[in-house]
Write a structure and sequence with these properties.
mainly beta; 5-stranded antiparallel β-sheet; disordered N terminus; 456 residues
Length: 456
């Protein structure tokens, strides 16, 4: 998505928010029809105003050139995703502007010069079909990840076309699953069965324009409705909870009540559904050891949990146990699961840290990875069919590095690093604390030349 389009979207949001009082008609309500000629003409007008302001600034050309060079640099770290026994990557550069979906073996990816095999060339596909295809990822059937549903957006919007792709044949499956462009989601029950939420015709979308009906679709057969949400909510979909071998252990249906609030239903063996008693404001992070890993974004007083807690929840019994409660100086940034481990990325006094959890007879125990302080740490990807994962580290003065992690042993190996973009050898980073009027210690970072005198 271009900067100019983003600026136009921001202008729309500002215009809508600046509308008259709630009791008065909204003079910008016509912008809700985002594809109408009037709305598109208004966006083009705002784009022209923005371009005239930005592109005539003498700094614009320099910043644009520098940003483009960084975004298309050949020495960027190719971001890894686990694809069966291999590593997948989506790559764009100055030649492949729409991108290549490609893969390399695990060993090859970790080497200095990976040997890439192209799965899908988006530039070639767009040219052949006369479309502006934007790759929105793929949902693959584990554990082999041979069959995938590729998500293609014509122009980059939320609506995507779903097409079945064979990663072994490196081609779309002739006569395979294919669903026209819509706001939709799908999950593989098995090689011939999907759980699909999409526009099934009049009356199947919410007022927000998202599907609220989930159907089970077997290859070559019409779909059968298996879950029904509420047209007044945001939308609905299905999530599959898989065991270590990739087999489906549970089916969850999700109703997005509002933007940050969701309800979940468990599909029982007899075909009935039971609502999970989780609070509305939660984030499901994964499934490991037959438990949902859930971040709480609100208190759960009935169970003694508070906002910020990371808990493990058994879908069948409804039992919940605490995995981690952040202290006063800690925040959980992210969490992910491997086959047998839980990875928790956190900040402690704005220092990045990564803990690896396992569940034993006495509950959950953690081991902190031996990484230096002062780094920002990011969970990049994790493998549900093994205990492998990738994490990234960086700091104010250190370029991004990518590490391969064996979560079962705690083994870490740095496999890739960005080259320095500036000379940082004469600088140093320090952490200090300021004290507020109420006595709170507030951490901050100081980046300075090594020889600077603290003279105020």
């Amino acid at each position: 998505m271009s900067l100019r389009f983003l600026v136009a979207i921001a202008a729309v949001a500002l215009a809508v928010s600046a509308a008259a009082a709630p009791s008065a008609p909204d003079p910008f309500a016509w912008l809700e029809d985002i594809h109408s000629p009037r709305a598109l003409a208004w966006v083009e007008q705002q784009n022209a105003r923005t371009a005239a302001r930005l592109e005539t600034d003498p700094r614009y050309a320099v910043y644009h050139r520098e940003a483009l060079a960084l975004l298309t640099a050949e020495d960027r770290i190719p971001q890894p995703t686990f694809l069966g026994d291999d590593i997948g990557n989506f790559w764009q550069d100055s030649v492949h502007t729409k991108g290549l979906w490609r893969r390399a073996s695990f060993a090859s990816y970790n080497s200095p010069a990976p040997q890439w095999e192209t799965l899908l060339d988006l530039d070639a596909l767009s040219k052949a079909e006369g479309k502006n295809w934007i790759f929105k990822g793929a949902t693959c059937l584990p554990p082999e990840d041979r069959l995938c549903l590729v998500r293609l957006s014509n122009g980059g919007g939320d609506a995507v076309e779903l097409r079945e792709f064979d990663t072994r044949a490196k081609a779309f499956v002739p006569g395979g699953f294919r669903f026209a462009s819509a706001k939709q989601s799908a999950a593989w029950l098995d090689a011939d069965t999907l759980l699909l939420a999409r526009d099934f015709g009049p009356g199947t979308l919410t007022t927000s324009g998202y599907p609220y009906i989930v159907k089970q679709v077997k290859r070559g057969q019409p779909g059968v409705e298996v879950f029904h949400g509420d047209p007044k909510e945001v939308g609905a979909g299905a999530e599959l909870l898989r065991g270590p071998n990739g087999a489906v252990e549970h089916v969850l249906f999700r109703r997005s009540v509002r933007t940050f609030e969701s309800r979940y239903w468990l599909l029982l063996p007899d075909g009935s559904q039971r609502a999970l008693d989780l609070p509305l404001k939660t984030d499901v992070r994964g499934y490991v050891d037959r438990r949902l890993i859930v971040s709480l974004n609100e208190d759960w007083p009935a169970r003694g949990f508070t906002a910020g807690d990371l808990i493990a929840y058994e879908p069948l019994t409804g039992q919940a146990e605490l995995v981690f409660r952040p202290g006063p100086t800690q925040t959980v940034n992210d969490a992910a699961v491997t086959q047998n481990r839980l990875l928790v990325e956190l900040l402690d006094n704005v220092n990045g840290a990564l803990d690896v959890y396992r569940r034993g007879p006495d509950g959950w125990s953690a081991k902190r990875l031996p990484l230096p302080r002062g780094l920002a740490i990011t969970l990049v990807s994790s493998d549900h069919q093994s205990d492998r994962a990738y994490i990234a580290t960086e700091s104010f003065l250190e370029p991004t590095s990518l590490w391969s992690l064996d979560a079962a042993t705690g083994g870490l190996a740095k496999v890739k690093s960005l080259p320095p973009r500036f000379d940082a050898t004469g600088d140093v980073t320090e952490q200090h604390f300021a004290t507020s009027k109420d006595g709170t210690r507030i951490p901050y970072w100081l980046v300075r030349p090594k020889g600077m005198k603290p003279d105020g």
